[in-house]
Design brief:
The structure is a homotetramer. The first copy, chain A, is α+β, with helices and mostly antiparallel strands and about 400 residues long. Chain A has two domains: about 210 residues, 3-hydroxy-3-methylglutaryl-coenzyme A Reductase, Chain A, domain 2 (Alpha-Beta Complex); about 90 residues, 2-Layer Sandwich (Alpha-Beta Plaits). The radius of gyration of chain A is 24 Å and the shape is globular. Chains A and B meet through helix 1, strand 1, strand 2, helix 2 and helix 5 of A and helix 1, strand 1, strand 2, helix 2 and helix 5 of B. Strand 1 of chain A pairs antiparallel with strand 1 of chain B.
């Protein structure tokens, strides 16, 4: 087995990338020309990737205009969706038309925090409880220490979770316009080592992580307590518009919802809606989010009603939407362009982006549910899809 | 609000894409030049996207060689990982070094099926049960009907799930080298309409979907019954190698695992491991998978032991890995190249790719866990990361 | 610390019980006279308890008549409910009146099996898979071995669940009129030791249990696959009767159900209904069931509809109802009387009892939901309750 | 169908009970003599049951002494266990011997609250959020109103859970020595109606309950936030004692725990331990608890370690132990005696009882796990059991 050339992570250049491609192409007797087609100086990638060799070109379709009545996002937006799944853009686009005609989607951010949850192992549960009481009593000092490591991170509160001799502290930070996972790790680390150095009575062991954040995977804890933004998108679609655009009634959608609610409960699913992951993933890829957070962000709670006048109230609540408009991949060339086309790049924009994403998700929910109810689901994939 | 030009989904050309970009750029007073930098004829995208306007350029780093002792994947592989998260490629690469020195990763596919789960609503539970008995008795005929719609899809079995007057049928198909969601939808649709046309006693209502597949979201049902491939990756790392490469002992990793197991159980998480979503997402984007399936594929089960000689047995079981080497986005230019560099493009390759992905995930688990245990986690993000 | 006298478990006599009471009473300076008031010869308790010292006198109230349209239970039943919670009997009784006027409750048993799930640990996942294939190929022989240990237990099938190098086999038995936990343990033990003696390639370790049964605790696996009987109870209550008896409309109950469904999903609850544990526990105590199985049997799935004519379809599905009419405590004096008053004692009666229990649960669901909706909940507890 | 005589719930007399028994006995052509054997005046049952007809005589065995090093329970206790399952008392008794020799069980109460969770439905999510902010700002007034209805209930805090236009408020009360379900219902009702009368902007609908308490069923919310007492029991068993009493090593128990942890995670179980429901149910019946709360109280978290010297640290955490020493059935004749034999009757005793119960559970866990590991499980049921 040969080692990759230029394994150094400090080597961000066209040449280094080409040499990596050549090496692998030769090794596999194949051709990697498209990978090498990118439009920027690899130097911009420092901090985003190691062993850079080229780019995935993921096709982007535009959908919209999406009409949002948010507190941060207000007005009409064209939305970039990066996907290779036929029908997806068309389906979301259809939902945007519907909700546009209905007067737009109301979005509300109701929670906002990023977590790191170290675990402390004591001699017994009493020491753990005593430490927990100390934490409560000394929150202000801990907060001050933690916040020294970051400009934008603010420690909101510390949850405590006790099991036997173990005590998890779940630090909740607001993180400005960054998703903030690294920021909160560093701040939590700093606070914990300050405590560790001061000495903790009865402590046997400490670990910076113990799966209670929870990071890069769904957990019911995240659904209940949130991770990232908790955003709610709502709409009331008049029955006539529903009929005209979707060829369904509110009653029929509501009946389908009953089946989907029951199925999700029976399956013990993270989401009683349909496919929020589709819209979110397409936007995450386009806008430079950490796409692996789809694992958490795909959880959702759907609640709907038929109004007395026969219209359809529909809502989607995303409890753990992890999103940034600053840091991570948001500043890379195509990613930044995608944020800018929604005026969502940089500081002060993250809740706006969260609102737009929630609105997009809602559009996809209504579109797919309608297609199932109207029995247009299979035929639309026949029309747009590839997997035949 | 202005409508997007060329909303027709049949318009796959450089011009059409440019006009969409220009329209949106003008509308938002911004610039979308990088989006327009792609290296292929948009005509290849028919069936993959609508309203095509450009591409996301997602940086790819190469990791490897990864040594796999699979039944389908055998030998050393260089792995393309598309991500914007600093440290990720370096961390997986470190795990690949470790497992290479340990003699490679054993991979085993133990389950393989794709689902569609229509729901039948009856007058009462007795009619539902009677229909279920009819399904069991007529499986061969149903199978024949379903398989008429597809060359590669084979109906394996039909699960039944009853709640009150509702009966879900969960059709399990093998789908060759495609992920198969559309294939199984079409086949299930065909089988159901054959039954519906023949008449089903006591039936009140039918819906093609009711959240029991479950598609584009985590469910415990998927963890138990699988969706896509269920793959297990295992390794035994000798203690000396663990110490040399990772600066940790098997005992220390195992102790950390106890905390992570407890935390995952307490959080009611879909995954008691660390971050399988990171490696899978990076490979999904690179190889043209349906990235939204990370919602399901991120679930995992980790089991480890310290062997009598102090080495570390570590395994990761991915119950719902949804992956394809044919169809969907796998044939697009950069995506195909990424598959080809692992000799995983086209027919007969899907289990090979599944094995490689599981092996990649395992590498990331060992690397991150070691970093946490060795307290190198924060410092490595300092070195490679951006989110400061 | 003094040891209890007559620790021998073979000592079932009035004298031995009295001596135990006297010893403890003296030790605690208290009086245990009521404990000693029982109406049978302690010799009947052999096999039911050790260190017998007396009885708990749990008050029983009668409710009914309950009108059941089951396949096994047909007609009107008076139901014994053992409880100390004021309002409980009255509330269930009210539900029985309602459903009686509505024409009775339809009950259907749709699944029936008791489990034991040993776990086999192999050198690696491949050996585990190979063993699984052997199990499938040799099911008939395994079945024959297992059934040698029992008259009434029949091995229905063996589920396989693989994680890393572990393979759980979940044996599903029908168990006649007994709950069957011990019966299936013995049969499974016998089958496993036959395999172990024959030699299993690559096996490292074996354990008779590993929490996949799952016994004496809720699990989602039990909800999906069942444990004991899966029973569905259904009713359609005409709107006028609902109004007359409960002072609510179908629409109001259905609206409340929407909130309860959402709440149960959000809480990740084992039951989207209200309080099935109340009715089941009261009947379990009265009829000599293993009351600890409430942990499993309390899971339930509620589905309801408003019919086109404004009546209320309501159903409760109990996936893991563990119940017996033979063995365990069913033959003890008061317990047997309680079974006999429903003609449910002895062989051939267990599905009848399961149907009655499901019907009772349904009555309690409708009664409590109606009380909440009609805002009569607090006042009824004021009237009947004690906890002020 | 004939109506039961004396349906009035105010009729608590020997005669009324006898008439009910006679009526049912005649109706079913059976005999209910044992039911009528009870040793108290039925008048004591007012507030505990309606339509009283007799008692279930549930056999009680004594186990112990149990050595507890609690903060409230200190010393040796003889424990009453009401059950009809052979082996149960003997098994717990064995665990008590083991832990007695090990120096006793340390118990710690770490959380204490009882819940009621009304749900408020608004026009949209913004009104819901605004109401939530009002709740936070007016907590002291709400607390004052709620506490007017009760002497011992104190409002600790109010959780908020938002989904779409719905907002659940989860009121957490401490409830003195009562379990407190009715007390908190009344207090919450009072607080809510005070708010409702004052007027809540944008409110469409209100319901006193919506499955987020969660009452009489397991929920992961209860595991995370607690319901009733959260109690931790811990012990370190020296290896020699483990070997002498249980014929197992700490290493073997720990290995079995790995399998049980994995199985519980795979099954998505409410409890990674073995059978806490057994010990709790037996004590609940004996001591007049609301036995239906086993649905919630059976949840548990087990964490164990092998110490450097080869001893076994074992802990069980019960997050939702619902228990009382006052109110409900605690004052009935046999029930009170059972509390008194542990000096746990009346005010100021509830945490003591909670500690004893947790210690009992721990004993049963060690005993059953040891039996499985030592392969004595089947044979012990052969010796003591009945279900053959």
């Amino acid at each position: 087995m040969k080692k990759l050339p230029f394994d150094s992570t400090d080597n961000y250049s066209h040449d280094a990338a080409a040499q990596r491609r050549d090496f692998v192409a030769q090794n596999a007797d194949t051709n990697l020309q498209h990978l090498g087609s990118y439009s920027f100086d690899p130097a911009v990638l420092r901090g985003n990737i190691e062993n850079f060799a080229g780019v995935a070109q993921v096709p982007i379709g535009f959908a919209g205009p999406l009409l949002v009545n948010g507190e941060h996002a207000q007005g009409a937006f064209y939305v970039p969706m990066a996907t290779t799944e036929g029908t997806l853009v068309a389906s979301y686009n259809r939902g945007m038309k519907l909700t546009r005609l209905a007067g737009g989607i109301t979005c509300t951010v109701v929670n906002d925090a990023m977590q790191r949850a170290p675990v402390f192992v004591f001699e017994n549960a009493r020491y753990a409880r005593q430490f927990g009481q100390w934490i409560d009593a000394n929150f202000d000092r801990i907060k001050a220490i933690a916040e020294q490591t970051t400009r934008s991170g603010k420690l909101r509160d510390i949850e405590q979770h006790a099991v036997g001799k173990l005590l998890w502290l779940r630090f909740n930070f607001t993180t400005g316009d960054a998703a903030g996972q690294n920021m909160v790790t560093k701040a939590t680390h700093s606070a914990c080592y300050w405590m560790l150095e001061a000495g903790i009575e009865g402590l046997e062991h400490f670990a910076m992580a113990g799966n209670l954040d929870t990071d890069k995977k769904h957990s019911h804890l995240n659904t209940l307590h949130g991770r990232g933004k908790k955003v709610i998108a709502e709409v009331v679609v008049p029955k006539q518009i529903l009929q005209d655009v979707m060829h369904v009634s509110a009653e029929a959608l509501f009946k389908q919802r009953q089946l989907s609610n029951m199925g999700a409960f029976l399956a013990n699913s993270s989401n009683n809606g349909s496919h929020s992951a589709n819209g979110l993933t397409a936007m995450f890829i386009a806008t430079g989010q950490d796409v692996a957070n789809i694992a958490e962000s795909a959880a959702a709670l759907t609640y709907s009603e038929v109004t007395p006048s026969g219209d359809y109230y529909f809502s989607i609540t995303i409890p753990s939407l992890i999103v940034a408009t600053h840091g991570g991949g948001t500043g890379l060339p195509t990613q930044r362009e995608c944020l800018e086309m929604m005026d969502c790049f940089g500081t002060g924009k993250v809740r706006k982006l969260a609102e737009i994403m929630a609105a997009v998700v809602l559009c996809g929910e209504l579109s797919l549910a309608s297609a199932i109810v109207a029995n247009e689901w299979v035929s639309s994939h026949e029309q747009y899809g590839r997997n035949r």
